[in-house]
Amino acid sequence: MRTSRPSRRAVLAGTAATVALSAVSTAAAGPALAATEAAGDADASGYRWRNVVIGGTGFVTGVLFHPSVRGLAYSRTDIGGAYRWDDRAARWVPLTDHLGWDDWNLLGVEAIAVDPAHPNRVYLSLGTYAQAWAGNGAVLRSEDRGATWKRTDLDVKLGANEDGRGAGERLLVDPRDSDTLWLGTRHDGLLKSTDRGATWAAATGFPAKASATGQGVMFLVAAGRTVYAGWGDGDGTPGTANLYRTTDGKAWEAVPGQPSGTSAKVPIRAAYDKVTRELYVTYGNAPGPNGQSDGSVHKLRTATGKWTAVTPVKPGGTTADGSADSFSYGGVAVDACRPGTVVVSTNNRWADIDTLFRSTDGGRTWTSLKDAAVFDVSETPFLNWGGDKPKFGWWIQALAVDPYDSRHIVYGTGATLYGTRDLKRWAPQIRGLEETAVRQLVSPPVGEAHLLSGLGDIGVMYHERLTASPSRGMASNPVFGSATGLAQAAAKPSYVVRSGWGDNGNGAYSNDGGQSWAPFKAQPDIAKSAPGPIAANADGSVLLWSFVHWDGTKYAAHRSTDNGATWSEISSFPKGATPVADPADPTLFYAYDTDTGTLLASTDSGLSFTERADGLPTGDSQFKLVAAPGRSGDLWVSTKTNGLHRSTDGGATFSKVASCWASHTLGFGKAAEGADYPAIYQVGATETITAVYRSDDEAKTWTRINDDAHQWGWTGEVIVGDPRVYGRVYLGTNGRGIQYGEPV
């Protein structure tokens, strides 16, 4: 998937492939939400796929109400696709789950555009990273609100998960002509389409010069028949333009008199009040969402060209405890029902916490909505952040006012969407939207919970029910950011250990299956800067903890025999490897050294490791060593380039499994009726495509259990079957949360 950076070319002719998602096979994309998501119709594979409910958990970068249809809205995320709001069902419908393994880079949504004159039309610009190793971007276009799509592949890269991702919509339907679309890019200037997104060319006459390292176009917005473009590469000095406009779609000019200085260096978002004919623009001294410390709000009376500063509170003051109150401004939305009413958000205000400011007099006076806010997060308890209380928000750049209801405001944060109907009471408006990046999954053989999960940004969760956000929220004592390890003692499932990034410790254990936790009494010094995967032997008497820094640096593993009170280094354990416990024999551990292609084993409960097999595949970043449940020495190695390998003698010898040529991740579940070996699940390739498979005969044959409408981009991190329910499988995605499938 590594591609060279394209040159700036005048014409970007794209394909016009159609992706048709039928009502039966698209619980993730069709308009009939009640029939698909709620009832859970089977897909074309005979499986029903649904999200394990957590509720958001990722950065919602944009939310857009349709100006012509009551109750119709769209949202976008930085790595988890786009959604449409189903007002009748009061939940979000995912629109991009059909994007598969090869299109993982398209799960990041750079922008959304709707056509006020044609309510069923919607457009998406996709591309997660603009780096050389990422694929090019694409534009999806739909005539039925996202039930079916046509796709145009671009010759440029987009960056939905890079700096500036919370800026305004970089995609716009021209207000004069529905066939004309504008697309702003980060490094390749402004593009234009005259055939509703089927083909694209560089826009002529746009004066700003693209940069290989800059932000490029930050937003596109219509003000009457005029199109405005925010430009992110100015330096803020007087006379340096960061806002351009065109009145005829041909000639562009810098907007006269525009604000300058540090607080107005980068235009973040803009919104137009069509009654007062005023354009409101938020600014920052950096593109955000991080790294901002100054900002402002200005409005332009488009009829006269007069600019007015309307900043609610200037950054740079001091909070009550003496901290510096540095921040920027992000979201902006006008009230279509009440001329002169506008809402803006602060951003990156960590000391005094971000807020929304609302004005009913065109920005002359403002009220902070945070001051009277009452939150109800009972539906998504993780937002209490380990027993504290909800924050009003952070990374608030997505912001919208319902054009049909002045008191209905929605804003995005780094973890959810909040909404209100009375400007005081707020609750997550997030049903159906799941953006978690999933790192570990454990399905216990006994107990209340069928699933434990280790997640990016929000630690570990205990799922009493798959259809409701965990009532305990994030595992606390300590609270982690991202989890790096999660393991259960196979013969003592009440004992679970976890590791991750935490401010007050990086490891913890549970004696009640993950319901409650206690931190390790001590930890190796390296744990704070490089927490890695962790394992518990079969009876929970020995822990092995490996350490890997986020930059890839590997460190020596450590061992504990007293529940984490003391630790000793294991010099013979391969640095950075993932420890794997034998599920039947508590004296056995295994490790795969991916640098040398060597399988090592310990027969003394992890005190020392010796080589058992060499000549195995090397250099594959997606190696997975998995032990089959209930059996000693039954090991499987999945690799993306060398397929699947198996050992039945504790790693002394391995044989290649002939039934698949690529295996990205592997797991086990309850055996089929009459079978004497657990069901095997994998994300891999048995023929030409990468998909989700199940085998009931020890990997001799495979059955695909997802279909083309349910692919979720990159799914190579973790998969595990349920040991108590045959056919049920849990799949971790990189931005679409935990998917679980069941045969029907």
Q: Taking strands numbered 1, 2, ... along the chain, how are they ordered across the largest sheet?
A: 1-15-14-13-12
Strand content bin: 35-45%
Q: Major beta sheet, specifics?
A: 5 strands, antiparallel
Q: How does the helix and strand content classify structurally?
A: mainly beta
The level-1 CATH class of the largest domain? Mainly Beta
> Which architecture name of the largest domain does CATH use?
7 Propeller
C-alpha geometry? globular
Helical content band: under 10%
Say which CATH homologous superfamily of the largest domain is assigned. YVTN repeat-like/Quinoprotein amine dehydrogenase
What average pLDDT do the residues reach?
93
Q: Which stretches are poorly predicted, pLDDT < 50 over at least 5 residues?
A: 1-40
Might you state the CATH topology name of the largest domain?
Answer: Methylamine Dehydrogenase, Chain H
Question: What can you tell me about this protein's structure?
Answer:
The chain has 744 residues and is mainly beta. The protein folds into 2 domains: 11-30 and 39-428, Methylamine Dehydrogenase, Chain H, CATH 2.130.10; 438-743, Methylamine Dehydrogenase, Chain H. The chain is 1% helix and 39% strand. The chain is globular.
What's this model, at a glance?
With 744 residues, the protein is an all-beta fold. It has two domains: 11-30 and 39-428, YVTN repeat-like/Quinoprotein amine dehydrogenase (Methylamine Dehydrogenase, Chain H, 7 Propeller); 438-743, YVTN repeat-like/Quinoprotein amine dehydrogenase (Methylamine Dehydrogenase, Chain H, 7 Propeller).
